[in-house]
Amino acid sequence: MTVTDPSAAPRRIPRGKRRVGDVVFANTARGSGILILAILAGVAAFLIIQSSDSLSANVANFFTTSEWDANTREEPAFGIAALAFGTVLAAGIALVIATPVAIGIALFIVYYAPRRLASLLGYLVDLLAAIPSVVYGLWGIGWLVVQLRGPFDAMERALGWIPLFAGPVSTTGRTMLSVGIVLAVMILPIITAISRDVLHQVPRDHREAALALGATRWEMIRIAVLPYGRPGIIGGVMLGLGRALGETMAVAMVLSPSLVISWFLLQSGNQTIAAHIALQYPEATGYGVSALIAAGLMLFAITLVVNVVARLVIARRKEFR
């Protein structure tokens, strides 16, 4: 009987003798990656070409002007400053609200809830992602803004000395904070689902070692679970941020638009790029369409920068993989 040396390296199949299935799979995977790059480049090229007409004729500074009057080519005056500010502000509010809640839900489902309850909660959280944006918009404008008027008044009385919560409070409740809450609910299932999957992958040895050293369950989570799962959680948060940046219908329905740069979360004002495009595009013609595509180009650039930054942050945490 021949005894095989377990330390011997596995025999490699020569490149010329690779199986047909391996070759097909490798080429399919390579082609899929190239296709994604081609689609991304095509979208960028389309936005640049279609927006070049308005950008080249814009007499005002595109990045610092808040006005938007792009109906004529002779005296164009449109800027993206207010729209970009509103987009980032709404997404930031949603992220601040949704991130701790989503991580808390994921930790409860994975490490605290009984198995049956955890399965039910996971299903309900995933179900939130299947609700259309327009339904969230109807919920926001039909119920949420009405219920928030009282809390907004109390918030202004208690925290009005902070510029963010200064009055007068909007009587309609259609403010940037209302939009942030709606967006937080919308991105909650994305962050929760990814965080839950990441927390499930934490090696059992890490958790048992922390418990064996006398750590409580929370200490085990803090010193063994969260450091290991941090890259994946950050990735989930960035995916949620991308969804919040590009959300259209819910923001357009809930927010009372205004092309201003305002830090006052309890007052009506601000607007996002996606919502502005959705509201203005049906009536835009000719030069106005080019201006709206230029706004879309700015949103594309913001989303691209956010994803690049997220990848850099995750790459710095490779030691926890």
**CATH-scheme architecture:** Orthogonal Bundle
Q: Strand pairing plus helix content: what structural class? A: mainly alpha
Helix content: 55-70%
Query: In this structure, how is the largest beta sheet organized?
Result: 2 strands, antiparallel
Q: What Rg, in angstroms, do the CA atoms define?
A: 25 Å
Q: Please, how many domains? A: 1
Q: Strands of the largest sheet, in order across it? A: 1-2
Multimerization status: single chain
For the record, the CATH class is Mainly Alpha
Transmembrane segments: 20-49, 78-111, 123-146, 175-194, 248-266, 286-314
Family: Belongs to the binding-protein-dependent transport system permease family. CysTW subfamily.
Domain ABC transmembrane type-1: 84-310
Function: Part of the binding-protein-dependent transport system for phosphate; probably responsible for the translocation of the substrate across the membrane.
